[in-house]
Structure formats: C-alpha cells, structure tokens
What does this fold into?
Amino acid sequence: MPRIKKTEEATKQIEKPSSGIARLSKQPQLVKGMKDVLPHDQLYWDHIRSIVAKIGDDYRFARIDTPIVEHLNLYTAGLGKQTDIVEKEMYSFTDQGGDTLALRPEFTAGIARAYIEHGMVSLPQPVKLYAFGPLFRHEKPQEGRLRQHTQWNCEVIGEGKPVIDGQLILLGYKLLTSLHIKPLVQVNSIGCRSCRPAYRESLVEYYRARRASLCEDCKRRLNKNVLRLLDCKVETCQGLIAKAPPIVDSLCEPCRDHFISVLECIDELEIPYQPNPHLVRGLDYYSRTVFEFYALMNTDESDTQPARMAALGGGGRYDDLIEMFGGQSTPAAGFGIGIERVIMKIKELERASGTKLIPRRVNPEIFVAQLGEQPKRRAMVLYEDLLREGFTVAAEFAKDSLKAQLELANKCNAAITIILGQKELLDGSIIIRNMEGGEQEVIDIKKLIPTLRRKLNGALGEQQKGG
RNA sequence: GUGAGCGUAGUGUAAUGGUUUAGCACGAGAGUUUGUGGAACUCUUAGAGCGGGUUCAAUCCCCGUCGCUCACCCCA
It folds into this structure.
C-alpha cells in the first residue's frame, strides 16, 4: 500500500494561506459508520461496564484484552472464507512491514489464539474469559448497525458439557435483565462434524430437486453454504423451508442429548426461550448449540414475539476451533452482546415508560462560589480541602459574577453553595447557602468542615424520614 | 453491496422560485440587580451538508456527491 502517498494526499487538503493559520478545506467529519459517545451518554456505558465487571466477578470470568489488530489469516482460517464477515466486511490492510493485518471483526478467534499462545491448556479447565471492546465490520451503516461497534464477549474454553452452554446463556440473560430488558433466547443445534455433513447433504439434495423455485440468493448459497438457506426471508423460499428436513431429526445421538440438556438447563433457570430450527449462525466455527438474544416488545406483557429489531447478541459452541488453530482438541463456547444495540433498547424503554432506568450522575454536595481575585485563589485551595475531606464538590473558577455561579450551582443540583468574597476573606468567615430553601448563614471558616458535614447529614436524615 | 426516502443555527422545527434581514422555541453567553440561583424581561450567539446546472433570480427545481434513515442482505 502506498501509505506515504496517502498521507501526502491528505495533507493537500490543508490550505496554506500566506498569512494566518492553515485551514482544512473541508470541515473534519466522522468516518462513515463510526459514532462518538458523547458525555451525556457515558452514564449508560459506565453502568454497563460496571455490570459486566460484576458478572465477571460473580461467575469467575477473568477479563482478557486482546489487540484490535490481528493477522488477517486468523479470521480467514477461523471464521471461514465463505462467510460474509470475511468475504466482504473485513477491514484489512498491509502495514509498512508488509504484514497482512485486519481490524478484528469479532472476539472469539483472537481469544482462541491467546488461549493457545499463552498455554492456557495448562490452567485448570475450563478457562472462563470475558472481553469488552470495539469490533469492526465494513457493512452499510444503519441505525443499530455501525462499522465500529462494541461487544461484551464471554468465552468458556476447555469444557464441552451442556451446562456450560446453559451458564453462558444465563450470563447474557443476566446482563439484559439487570438493564431492565426482557430477553428472549432463540436456540438451535447445528450438529457436529460427524452428523452435520450428512444433514447438509440431505438438505442439498432436498433443495437441488426444487432449485427452480429458489430465489437468486439461495441459488448462490446452495453451493456455498446450504445451512443459510434455512433463514432466507423470501416468501417463496419460506414455503420450502417449512418442508425442509429439520436439523434436529438428523442430529447424532450425542448432539441430540447435548441439545436436550441445554434446553433442560435453561428451562430450569427459567430463562424464556424458543427453539428455532432455522437459526443458523454466520460463522463456520460453530458446532452444536447456537443461540441469539432478542428483546421482547415490552408494550404487551403477553407478547412472546421478539421485537422486530435485530438481535442484541448471540453465540454458540465452537468445539473444533482451537484444534483448527493448531491447538489440542479443545471444546469451547461463547457469546457476544452488542452494547450499542443494548443502549438503544434501554433508551427505547426509557422513552416508553417515561422513567430513567440507569442511575444518573450524583449531584455535588457543595458548590464553591467566589468573588474577587484573592478569594478566587483561596477558593481553589478550599476546593482541594473539601475533596480531601471526601465531599463531592463543584465550582467554576472562570466565572466572576456570583449570579452566574449560583446559576451553575442550581443547574448541577448542589445541596449547598459556600460563598467566599473579599469581606469573608478579611474576617475569616464564609457564607453557607442552602440551595433548596435559599436561607444562608455566615460562619467562622474554621468551622466549615464540621458544619457542612452536620448540614449534609441533616438533609440526608430528613430525606430518609420523608421517604 | 442493491433499491428507496430525507438533509434549514448546538437541538427541535416554520414558511418560501423574488414579498425575508430565512421565522419560532429550547440551549448557550451577557445584562436588568457592578455580592446571591430556580421566575420574568432585554440583548447577543448561531443555520440552508458540499459541488455543479436550469433561471433575470435557487434554501426551494434538476444532476452529482457526502451523510443519515428505511428495506433487502447480514448480523451486534
């Protein structure tokens, strides 16, 4: 890649006038499909990150951070060359050293790589890991479909029992319910290496005979990825899907038992689920259990149909991936949940119910206001003292007028404003103003800390009495 | 990737081929009160995504482009 040239190209856009500053000819613009997370949205992110960390602690999943950049062939080998992600959605490039790299389009391959590379086989099995971070796919953007999105991902490597699948589903369920989203899980089994080929063949046979009535996409898919035919949305194909041989019937005995155990497990945990015989995931590495998380439409309690919005998350078992990467044969399973979509859903619920579902930022207890140059400097020191004493504090030292400062104190909902002016500085006093009632008193500045503490406790006590 | 719709200050919107200095509300800043917030009032702030065409005249019509949205595709 002619990287240097590109840099020159970009530099050309900077107009350099004979005098004054160099200006970009066009205003800088967000890259298509990317999104800024602005300050007013951070509370959602903070909250979700804290829940994710809590779930990690509660279930003994350890956090892992793998790099955003990996070798391209990790994904072409791991996810399958024919998959959409690899075929047309990957951000890949050649770096200055000539390495062919890609921005990660998903987490599992990188985590599997790390498992092998760091000899995690020799850790007590299974190894339970979670990751949280950005993924990149070059799709056509739409609402809830970005080119950079964030996922929370959980993986259990080194154990093939169905309880693991059940526990993973529980974890995803747990995140969603603790955010007040009512999830519905769709589950299926796509068999294993020993039973899937036979099923695939019977499916090909079934569809070959009916090739003429298939849509164009399905004709193409017939040779590449037959399983995908099962989730075609074209009406004429729907009829064929309904009569197609269902995969459950051709599962081998172990796969069948595994699937039943998973269903029994999530049933016992009272996780709402629907078996979906047409659920097929887009990546080649899946085996046996596959599942997706949807949100129920909350408008109607009795409604069990998933909202029309796309899935919030999904995952499954990938018993062959580690071996494909050259490790020992190691069963594994995992899932990912899309954070942007989850936040969209929370906001939708907040709008519908008119209530706030996510804890807001705490209001400052004390606003520090000042008047005059000397008091301003003194107030900055005072601010440090208050922080050290453990108060939550706010101030804007760049403002000079008391009015402006009180407006700010009001806007940020401070309980108390303390005011330090020339007069107070001279006689060693300070004004304490209760923002709710507006009453204020002048006290000896030496008594400030205990007085504030008493007042804030009093306010708290009253609140408790009242509530 | 294919098809369609949309694009007016920071946000939400109004009207319009010339009548307009592009209106209103919220927001932000300053003030009325040169040391006191939540109300009111005054002032200020800031806009047609970009490029081209048609026209005497374009924010408005046409084309292109960029972006967003929707459907398909796929998924988070």
Summary: The two ends of chain A are 66 Å apart (CA to CA). The first helix of chain A runs from residue 3 to 12. Chain A is about 40% helix and 20% strand. Residues 39-195+251-353 of chain A form a domain with the BirA Bifunctional Protein; domain 2 fold (CATH 3.30.930.10).
